[in-house]
Design brief:
Number of helices: 9
Helix content: 10-25%
Number of strands: 16
CATH architecture of the largest domain: 2-Layer Sandwich
Distance between the termini: 23 Å
CATH topology of the largest domain: Alpha-Beta Plaits
Shape: globular
Low-confidence stretches: 3-42, 71-76
Length: 320
């Protein structure tokens, strides 16, 4: 990635010095320095306030140089999400054969080229007396997300439609969210993407949006599964759902009580009730939006072993 592209992606709000979130301000209001440091009616107070900029540096500014910014206006409602929707996912463990088509599709459409994919498939077995099975894991998009509460710069946020997203232009790489997440689904970008790509005009226009999945990762920031909000905007399913050859993933709207894997559409409540659906670590109070169906009537486990690699979740290019 050339330096001009990186510089463009790291711009914050508009021209001049623009700050992230004030350490003592939260919730509905963000702050930034007034354009050109011009005072409109009052002079400096002589007091100093500590703020963190987008690069993680602590700087001191005069409170009179601050003004409130409407968060929805700045982000163009990206943080609000799609009104009247509540997205949810169901994973049928009995169907998973570790084909990894879901992982490859996710990696491709999100430019995931580092050491850790956003979607991982684990080999699971409760005891020696039970049959093993494959278990896909992704961000749980919790209704009470611990990651959101610990983020010091408001980079991680939860939308009204249930999606928990990351604004990489705000992320300063502190990794507090990774420590707080009980599901260990977040990854840190230690380096720039290692594959070549060509930027088109659509990518340039959307590069500041946390919803857009057509841009590679930013070094020094955190990433995770995003439930493909760019697909939801078009009324389409996430890439993992459409890529899976076995119908493992169901995606839909909890308010409509309907989910689909692309081949069949079913009632969410009926699917969970008839198959004893459950959520991971429900006792923690995080209220995940991802449900699992137990691996009953399990398919032959050996069929997925040829694709299993415990320590690699992103395919690496072969070196000569």
């Amino acid at each position: 990635m050339d330096e001009n592209t990186k510089d463009t992606r790291r711009k914050f709000l508009n021209n001049g010095w623009k700050l992230g979130l004030a350490s003592i301000v939260g919730g509905a209001a963000l702050t930034h320095l007034k354009e050109g440091f011009a005072f409109e009616t009052k002079g400096p107070t002589g007091e100093k306030m500590e703020l963190m900029d987008v690069d993680g540096n602590i700087i001191e500014v005069d409170p009179m140089d601050m003004e409130e910014v409407d968060l929805e206006q700045v982000t163009h409602n990206v943080r609000r999400g799609i009104p009247g929707r509540k997205f949810t996912m169901v994973v049928d463990l009995a169907k998973c054969q570790n084909a990894l088509a879901c992982q490859r599709s996710c990696n491709k459409h999100h430019f995931v080229t580092g050491d850790n994919a956003w979607l991982k498939v684990y080999k699971m077995q409760e005891t020696e007396d039970t049959a093993p099975y494959w278990m896909p894991t992704m961000c749980m998009h919790c209704d009470q997300p611990a990651c959101v509460t610990v983020c010091p710069v408001d980079a991680t946020f939860k939308r009204e439609d249930g999606l928990v997203l990351i604004d990489n232009d705000r992320c300063v790489g502190c990794r507090f969210c990774m420590a707080a997440c009980p599901y260990s689904t977040r990854v840190f970008n230690w380096s720039e993407p290692n594959q070549e790509f060509e930027m088109n005009m659509d990518m340039v226009e959307e590069m500041h949006s946390p919803e857009h999945a057509g841009m590679p990762s930013i070094k020094g920031t955190v990433d995770k599964c995003d439930f493909c909000p760019h697909q939801a905007e078009k009324g389409e399913l996430p890439h993992c759902v459409t890529a899976c050859p076995n119908g493992v993933f169901y995606f839909g709207d909890k308010y409509e009580d309907t989910v689909t894997n692309g081949n069949e559409t079913v009632r969410l409540s009926k699917l969970l009730e008839e198959n004893a659906g459950y959520r991971l670590f429900e006792d923690l109070g995080t209220e995940p939006s991802v449900y699992y169906l137990p691996p009953k009537d399990r398919l032959p486990f050996e069929e997925g072993l040829e694709n299993f690699n415990e320590f690699q979740s992103v395919e690496k290019p072969e070196t000569p």
